[in-house]
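Much of our argument rests on the idea that a fold can be written as discrete symbols. In the encoding step, the backbone of a single protein was reduced to a row of integers, each denoting a local shape. We regard such an encoding as a compact summary of how the chain folds. The record that follows shows the chain in one-letter code together with its fold in token form:
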Amino acid sequence: MAVIRDYNKLASDILREVGGEANITSFTRCATRLRLVLNETPEGAKSAVQSLPGVIAVVESGGQFQVVIGTHVADVHAALAAQLGDEHTGTPGKQKTRWFDAVIATMSAVFAPIVYILAAAGILQGILIVVGLIDAGVKTSGAYSILNFMSWTPFAFLPAFIAITAARHFKCNPFIALLCCCALINPEWTAMAGRIANGESINFLFFPLSETVYTSSVLPPLFLVWALSWLEKRVERLLPDVISPLFTPLVCFVIIVPLTLIVIGPVTNWVALTIAGGYNTLFETAPPLAAALIGGIWQIVVIFGVHWGITPVIMANFDTQGYDSFQAYQTIAVIGQMAAVFGVFLKTRNRELKTTSLSAGVTAIFGITEPAIYGVTLRFKKPFICGCIGGAIGAVVASLFGSLYYAYAALPGLFTLVNAISPDAPMSFIGELVGSATAIVLTIVMVQFVGFEDPVNEETLTEPETAPASGDTTATPAPAGAALRLLSPLSGDVIALHTVNDEAFAGKVLGDGIAIRPTEGRVVAPCDARVETMIDSHHAIGLSCANGAELLIHVGLNTVALKGQHFRPLVKEGDWVRAGTPLLEFDQAAIEQAGYDLTTPVLVVNSDEFQLTTHQASGAIRQQMPLMSLA
């Protein structure tokens, strides 16, 4: 993945590739992903977006087009919001969304915007736990008391946060939603629920009320806002415009809150407790089995972006029991994947992969594993499997100590291990440490032992290239004659140049090099260079590199006959470009349908002046993977 700085350009490129503003129904983000709900997914959009500099991967799951960007996702989301508006609503699509997709999309839209708020409070709780163990007397101080109630604030008022994010997702008035959800956590209702729990009967009209309280609840406020979005639209249509601004909030308020207290709240709360009870039954019956499942498959769940669906279960456990085992095992699954990417860092001899894996590993320390998964471990498969195995075994070890989490961790990871500390269960934290250590050591050892297909041994290269900033049109030339690494300008299948079905290319009349059969319709710069030639028919580009090498990228055979049709240049002659900068787009399907061979020679025109080393002679290759080096 290329490093990006022009977030506006990346947002614009993503918007273009997914079909423009009218095709986006809604959008949100989580810690690493831009999540788009599209009316329909344009053909080739996934591969086109995935090839953009700054994009780690694209996942289509849960009814969403998820663009994995990493730690800069907030900047790209802000850039997209500036172009579309935070409350953007596209033209409604005709596609029917599956109920499972709708559930996952709703959960991610509701919880992703507040994940860092919950994470901050969880970290503060962990710190207070440690401080309290070091000095029990500090718990009587005013400072401790204030920080303690601060750490519980977002959980006590969780329905209010859900009101805001859910109102945005369901497209209803956020202030009415906030009003209704605040009524659920009004201390007066909590007192009334306590009286009901003690045997008193309280009715609303003819309907008896239950003892359900809603602080820290998830599903009741979520379904409240969903029902509100349905009711609000109908009330607004029925009321005259002159009184609608006043009476719409009133009507919604007096209907939705009692309806929630009578029906929505008790039913949805029962659903959450039932689901949590199912997992807890497994945990109580066979803790090692529950641990192995969570530790082993959690990162697989993350791949598909549906991991927010478990949040109500976890919150229900904390609310009813004051602790949760799921997050204890979930944390070790995250640590296993973190260890896998550090294992790759230790084993690889590829300088670029070493840099990428180190960066992804540091990010994983904080509980964000998507860069590690998509950028490194899943790419090479075996490290990902090692991480899952290590996570499963480490979680089983922790289960033998009875490890639990006593504070919620929005982003489970190495820094949330302190959430397993409890004065009443001293072995909990010890077990979490031992389980985590087991996952780390076992995973790293497995990665070293089973290995993976290291892209290239670059020990002979004297100067590694640095990934560029997208849209940067200037480059600092390297000294003439210095070693130069050429990255693949295309994603596709590599073939030997002499096998190309063209005598001039196969005979190396135009220079030595290699050829690629593309699987995506985009060409990017293989190194820092100047665009010397852009053929009028746009099917070929000539580049001049800083070390004096002259490159020619010729898209297809005999495609000059198309006279530019199906090709779109993205740069012009004289531009300085960085490695990874998009140079040219082409409609692969249309060109092949017209009967042309899209085999693309990548040539060093003055190859007689250089020693050319091919890093990959055949097989699949992705853009910006090492292709050749010149010395």
The longest strand covers residues 512-518.
